[in-house]
Amino acid sequence: MTPHAEVQTPYHQGSRTVQDKAGVRTQADHVGRSIGQGIRPVAAAFLEIQPMLVLGGADGAGAVHASLLTGAPGFVRATGPRQISVADGVPATDPLAETLARDGAPVGTIALDPRTRRRMRLNGRARPTPRGLAIEADKVFSNCPKYIVKRELYEGRRPEGPGEPRRGTGLTDEQRAFVAAADTFFLATVHAHGADASHRGGDPGFVRVTSPYALEWDDFPGNAMFLSLGNLTQNPRAGLLFLDWTTGTTLQLTGTAETAYAPDDTRTVRFTLTETTETPHASPWRWSGPR
């Protein structure tokens, strides 16, 4: 067998291309063994204490979005060895609401708990249910706590409900400052047979706003899977989600992204936005600052 002969793998050619550029195919094969289709008891228990879930997918026009779903712990739970249910689903005003009203929509999800710096990802296909959504899993896996900022969750919901979404085609000065100060965002990408939602974190300023229509960030060393960057090699459309942990306001960006490779093997992702959606108080939860 040659070093690059294919064995059974959870990766498509896009991820393989990036892994080879980074010289981490062997490491990726090792990490890839942790990807399965089943939801283990420890993962089911983790889901049932989560107050939020990020979901990524494409709308009917192909634009990609990352959306925030929230609820009392238990609103996300395993309902079978390969299935989770999400109470209520996404709000009717969310960019993915129409897509998720149909059976079989490819979605990626990530449950990230700042309290414990743990995260779990589940990718699959969604269908509407009388209570919200059901998602049948294709891939289930966890990641290390690297780049997750620790926060505490305060008791009680905020008194105000979600405000009316405000849409635009470029970042306002206030939004630019918000993005530049962020230490966390979520990234949604898609490929021909599925979708993925992932997390990016770093010190404030790790996301650089280069214009009202563009931003960039360095791709830090991670788990060597390169699921997101692999997807972007096949479909450049992407969605970003920023959350104001104090006010619950969300900022969703949709557009396209490309990865620039430098001679020193560093990578920079450059995102060009086409639409913004800001929703005041989208989350009812109040989180502390970094701990």
How are the SSEs ordered, and which strands pair?
Blueprint: H1 13-22, H2 25-32, H3 41-47, E1 52-58, E2 64-70, E3 76-80, E4 83-87, E5 105-113, E6 118-129, E7 132-143, E8 166-168, H4 173-180, E9 184-191, E10 194-201, E11 207-211, E12 214-218, H5 227-234, E13 237-243, E14 250-261, E15 267-279
Descriptive report:
The structure is a single chain. The protein has helices spanning 13-22, 25-32, 41-47, 173-180, 227-234, and strands at 52-58, 64-70, 76-80, 83-87, 105-113, 118-129, 132-143, 166-168, 184-191, 194-201, 207-211, 214-218, 237-243, 250-261, 267-279. The longest helix is centred in the N-terminal third of the chain and has 10 residues, at 13-22. It has a single domain, classed as Roll (Pnp Oxidase, Chain A). It has 291 residues and is mostly beta strands. It holds the Pfam family PNPOx_N.
Sum up the structure in keywords.
41% strand; disordered N terminus; Pnp Oxidase, Chain A; single chain; 291 residues; mainly beta
